[in-house]
Design brief:
131 residues; mainly alpha; 2 domains; 2 strands; 47% helix
Length: 131
């Protein structure tokens, strides 16, 4: 995470890099570690996790931070993919739906009244993205 310039230089050429740092509170990190570590190993892992978190707090501004507390893996993945530009954002999807509805509305020359879509006709889904 802290060596992005070196990574980009090694890859060469025109490279687009999206750095993501998934974050959690110390309490949640300790709970997650406790599910997979036992005994004295747990204490050591918690100390190492806290030290790594402090070091990563120093990471540059170009790194997207995504909070994970209380969120499903699917929610986090969706935010990672839209943040990287690999999936359209919800606002992109809403604009596309409005554009499709406007283009599907009959033109005034074929109809006596023309009604533009109202704001309440736009639905924004938080489920899986569809293209």
């Amino acid at each position: 995470m802290l060596r992005i310039p070196a990574l980009l230089a090694a890859l060469g050429g025109d490279v687009h890099c999206s750095a993501v740092l998934r974050t959690s509170s110390d309490e949640i990190a300790a709970q997650r570690l406790a599910r997979r570590e036992i005994g004295t190993a747990l204490d050591e892992h918690i100390r190492r996790s806290e030290a790594a978190a402090r070091r990563l707090d120093q990471a540059g501004d170009g790194i997207r931070r995504i909070a994970t507390d209380g969120r499903s893996a699917a929610e986090i993945a969706l935010e990672v993919l839209t943040g990287a530009g690999w999936l359209p954002t919800e606002s992109d999807q809403a604009r596309r739906r409005v554009s499709q509805r406007v283009s599907a509305t009959p033109s005034p020359s074929r109809s006596t009244a023309h009604t533009a879509p109202s704001a309440d006709s736009v639905s924004i889904s938080t489920g899986s993205p569809s293209t």
